[in-house]
Specification:
By secondary structure, the protein is mainly alpha-helical. Helix content is 79%, strand content 0%.
């Protein structure tokens, strides 16, 4: 998913994130990456929800707090 995002292939990135959800649902960095994906696609409400989930799982993830503030 990250590689697809770097290559601006957002449809593939979205599909990759969806495929990983069952395995990484409880991982804060997974939700952070999804939030970043949504930010890059100007889906700010979805980004905020993803960053909130990331923060819920790992309260000291500074990047998630920062990006949520930008969203």
């Amino acid at each position: 998913a990250r590689l697809s995002m770097k290559l601006n292939n957002y449809a593939n990135a979205y599909n990759s994130f969806r495929c990983c959800m069952d395995y990484w649902n409880d991982n804060a960095l997974y939700w952070f990456d999804i939030g970043t994906f949504y930010c890059q696609n100007n889906q700010m409400n979805d980004a905020i929800i993803s960053f909130q989930k990331s923060i819920y799982l790992k309260k000291d993830l500074a990047e998630a707090w920062l990006n949520m503030g930008y969203s």
